[in-house]
Please model this.
Amino acid sequence: MFGPVLFCSDPYRAILEGVNVLELAGVETLDGAPAHHISFEQPDLNWDLWASAEGNPLVVRLEFDRGPGGMAGDGRIRV
Model:
């Protein structure tokens, strides 16, 4: 999903294409370090991104949710 998007000429626009709702959900602790939690809603996919709140803003977690019936299992993928 993100590979081709990150290497296109306008990754910001490509990532946000189709996003209906973007919410800054706050700062959470992941593996003992603070991380910004950002939630995205699209028509067929909801996803959450956590980026480190200290130092370089690196992505430390991604979760995708296609909802019930969207994929095998409970519909959530954690990366």
Summary: The chain is about 15% helix and 45% strand. The first helix runs from residue 2 to 6. The beta strands are 21-30, 33-41, 46-52, 59-65, 76-78. The mean pLDDT is 82.
